């Protein structure tokens, strides 16, 4: 586990480490049924969100074997946290990473998720020299699949009824991109 070492800026967003003052915005994301619908957990109370936020904040800054970097996604114009994303990877010979996240429903459908994913791919491939990065989605979550497609990721697998989530069998889509593919996209 690690923390984001600095703040990264995109056209409309800041990607930065979490702060305790983010609690209200963070809690607002996960108190919504439409956000937790495709996640492994149900909606969270403010107290549950506080516990998660405190774990995000107290992650050690050093890079170890299994790394998960929680990323606060902040809308630059309002300075409010609108999303909770991660970059995950293992520090081993395979150099595989994973990206994922959630946006507050008020900010969905505006290209913010793709903007975040684009930056997380850049961080993963340039800062951590990953070879391949995946994004895993509940197959019913077409918006997430589209966001990953927009940043050049391609479907590598459609796993049928591979997980039992919230009382039902669900399919999972695995999207991926290799560093060489990402480099070709950014060469022009």
Give a quick precis of the structure.
This protein is α+β, with helices and mostly antiparallel strands and 188 residues long. It has one domain (8-185): Aminopeptidase (3-Layer(aba) Sandwich).
Question: What keywords describe this structure?
Answer:
alpha+beta; Aminopeptidase; 8-stranded mixed β-sheet
How would you characterize the largest beta sheet? 8 strands, mixed
**In DSSP terms, counting alpha (H) and pi (I) runs of 4 or more, how many helices?**
6
CATH topology tier name: Aminopeptidase
Structural category is alpha+beta
Estimate what percentage of residues fall within beta strands.
25-35%
CATH homologous superfamily heading: Gcn5-related N-acetyltransferase (GNAT)
Low-confidence stretches: none
Residues in helix, %: 25-40%
Query: What is the straight-line distance between the termini?
Result: 34 Å
What global shape is seen?
globular
Q: Strand order of the main beta sheet, please?
A: 1-2-3-4-5-6-8-7
Instruction: Using the coordinates above, name the CATH class.
Output: Alpha Beta
> What's the architecture in CATH terms?
3-Layer(aba) Sandwich
Give the beta-strand count. 8
Tally of individual domains: 1
Give the SSE map.
Layout lengths: L7 E2 L3 E4 L6 H8 L2 H4 L9 H12 L8 E10 L4 E11 L5 E8 L8 H16 L4 E7 L3 H9 L3 E12 L2 E11 H7 L3
Parallel strand pairs: 5-6
Antiparallel strand pairs: 1-2, 2-3, 3-4, 4-5, 6-8, 7-8
Structural write-up:
With 188 residues, this protein is α+β, with helices and mostly antiparallel strands. Helices cover 30% and strands 35% of the residues. It has a single domain (8-185), classed as Gcn5-related N-acetyltransferase (GNAT) (Aminopeptidase, 3-Layer(aba) Sandwich), CATH 3.40.630. It has an eight-stranded mixed beta sheet with strand order 1-2-3-4-5-6-8-7, sandwiched between helices. The chain is globular and about 45 Å long. The protein starts with 7 loop residues before the first strand and ends with a helix.
């Amino acid at each position: 586990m690690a923390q984001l070492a600095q703040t990264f800026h995109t056209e409309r967003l800041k990607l930065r480490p979490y702060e305790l003052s983010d609690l209200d915005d963070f809690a607002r994301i996960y108190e919504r049924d439409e956000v937790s619908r495709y996640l492994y957990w149900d909606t969270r109370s403010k107290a549950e969100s506080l516990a998660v936020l405190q774990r995000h904040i107290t992650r050690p800054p050093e890079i170890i074997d299994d790394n998960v970097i929680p990323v606060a996604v902040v809308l630059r114009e309002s300075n409010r946290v609108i999303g909770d994303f991660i970059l995950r990877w293992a520090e081993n010979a395979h150099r595989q990473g994973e990206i994922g996240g959630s946006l507050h429903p008020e900010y969905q459908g505006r290209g913010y998720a793709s903007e975040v994913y684009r930056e997380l791919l850049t961080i993963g491939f340039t800062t951590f020299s990953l070879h391949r990065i995946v994004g895993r989605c509940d197959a019913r979550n077409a918006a997430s699949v589209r966001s990953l497609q927009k940043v050049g990721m391609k479907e590598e697998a459609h796993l049928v009824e591979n997980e039992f989530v919230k009382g039902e069998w669900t399919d999972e889509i695995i999207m991926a991109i290799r560093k060489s593919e990402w480099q070709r996209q950014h060469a022009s």
